[in-house]
Amino acid sequence: MATREELIEKTRGWFTGRLPEDLFEGAPEVTVDREEITVVGRISEPAYADGASDAEKAAAVEGRIKEFRERTREARMAVARDAEHKFGRKVSWGVRCGEDGRLFTHLSVPVMTRLKQPQRALLDTLVDGGVARSRSDALAWCVRLVEKNAGEWIGELRDAMRKVEEVREAGPDREAEH
Description:
Elements lengths: L3 H15 L10 E4 L3 E8 L10 H34 L2 E8 L2 E4 L13 H12 L6 H15 L1 H19 L4 H4 L1
């Protein structure tokens, strides 16, 4: 059985080989979880007039992203159909243009959780305070906050989990299974 890291590497490699060569500048970022594969590639920035304002540059980038999305829709959907069949996951697309990034499509997957009254009260406070529209939205807000403020720690935890997976795969019982 392939490790999570091997699955990600194979998926990234498949997309790198399968995507039309001129679709993105360089290899895309490919992110994989249980439900979704997200492919984000870099596209060229538009040429700006000398002295272009920030608003003009933002509008040009917005136009470039929209043009790319419309022009490449058919090719991206053909790749997505193949990938969804091969990997059993939905494919989402996005681009980076200059400093700007956009996701065209992505899944919003429900996650079941059990919370005790103090945690529910916290979510209700966020809803009552107008920070979130619902408990679900409040919980998503909390997750984004943890991601933002504990990103380095989360990265270290993921690295440690990869190491555990490598050690498990190299364990003494692995030879007997092959």
